[in-house]
Amino acid sequence: MSALEGAAALPVPPAPPAAARAFARLLGSELLLIFRRPRNLVILAALALLPVAIAVVVRYSSGGIGAEVTLFTRVTGNGLFLAFGAMAVMTPFLLPIAVTVVAGDAVAGEAASGTLRYLLAVPAGRTRLLAAKYLGAVLYALAAVLLIMLSALAAGWALFPSGPVALLSGTTISLADSLLRLLIVAGYATAGMAALAAVALAVSTLADSPIGVVAGVVVGVVVFQLLGALPDLAPLRPYLITSWWTAFDEVLRSPMGVARLVDGLLVYAAYTLVALSTAWARFTGRDITG
Amino acid sequence: MSVNAGVTEAEGTSAGASPPLGRGGAIVTTSLTKRFPGGQVAVDHLDLAVPRGSVFGFLGPNGSGKTTTIRMLLGLVTPTEGTCEVLGEPVPRRLAAVLPRVGALVDGPAFHPHLSGTANLLRLSAADAAVDRRTARARVAEALARVGLSAAARKRYGAYSVGMRQRLALAAALRGPRELLILDEPTNGLDPQGTREVRSLIRQVAAAGTTVFVSSHLLAEVEQICTHAAVMSGGRLVAQGTVAELRAALGGRAAVTRVTVETPHAGRAATLLTGLGLAGVRAGDGEVSAALGDRAPEDVCRALVEAGVAVRGFAVVRPSLEDVYVDLTGEGFDVGA
User: Fold this and answer.
1) pLDDT for B172-204, tens place per residue?
2) In-domain check, residue B334
3) Does residue B129 belong to the interface with chain A, where contact is any CB pair within 8 Å?
């Protein structure tokens, strides 16, 4: 009885469809903000150009390209491999930097420029705004991944043969199957970047300078990559988010190494959960003085 | 002559108690306090009572706690102590219900430099669950027109002048119908013409029934439009009430009605005024002034003329709200000069 009365005293939230529509508008505005920002567009353009540059170098030079030789020598056999190769090259550093620039700026940038106080006075709602900020960063990561892949596919097929694909384990699969596998790579890579975006967003709610946040998270990524590369610290590897980012080469085996991908996704989920909880606790309780 | 002598706590709070307000006030705070983690007390037991329909001047020097108070009213900063009610609802608990009815300009304009004025306001509209998407554009255009920014609506905010930025912040506050407008230093960065326009805008909004709460450290600008005022100093409220009450609260203080005499015989006039029993006589180059006290100005004038002092100009200067402000906050050194 008393519990019912307590519930009745709570403010009545808007009907779900109206609230969902209002949130969609906020998210749409967030996406416009991200995708109209010159800096973010320049980053996307650079990410899209890199696979083209790789294709040209592989096509017109005789030598291989460093560590990714196995993937890139296959590119000459099938242009589709350029998409895998480009992801393998860009996932450790370039893609994380792009995602960090957007997610790290999300709250700290608006706080530093003062636009945050006007959004909250609207009222945008702190939890609602944080959710829109996070989804916006994740969608930017997805756009970056898809752009890299599409650009790589276009460049790969323009300069190299297409058709059935020979996998790392030797089996040959159809074009349709290989495109499906590419989609899985895109999904897995986006999930990894979404976890990173959550971490960057959490740091963004903790600090006031957007450049400091972005630099801090990028340094963190580099440190994690170094720790993961040290043989003595091998036991640490499964706990580092960075170790799982390039696990999508499992997709190129037959049968696919699903178990390792699932492990990766679980690590991402754990990072995301902790980071978003931190971001929420900090952002909803914080004094906005900037 | 020092003006802050004689201003005591008791005198300050007696003026502060004047408007008794129940739940009807647009803003009512009791013992509202903000202590920042560093230990700095920005706002100290503030009891503010802003009647509905008033144009309320929130005055005080820079750093006296005005902006922190406004941030607490808008839920940006959580009070350490005390309660705060806006439009009859407790804040910050019922912010979601209150803020759609409140327009605010907080601590200067802040917008995205790469977006146009229109795009910046549409972003605020998109964040507002209470706004109908179909009318958002029309409302934004209307708000821009009200502040005279229609011609620059599609220009990048980064290319706006200081005055245009301030106008855009005002347009943001006027984005929808408001019951309460909270304006923090709305005339900052505006030229005299812009300041006049803001005053007339505030008058219009107030005439339509909106309560206007306007903070300023430049009081002459606000004095002409306010019905009520409060004066802050060092985080504390030193006086509040109607503008007339505040002027009356001056009795016996340093800032009082003075006479100023323009004359080539300054020395003789000064001696005469002292002889008449006027206090605070100051003689300058071709000018003498003194506190009028309870003397009638015409008597003073006649005495001067009869004594052979050539009176070229004679003026009675009544204390302005600025004198009250300077008197209460201790800002400034010499009221009469």
Assistant:
1) 999 989 999 999 989 887 888 888 888 888 999
2) no
3) yes
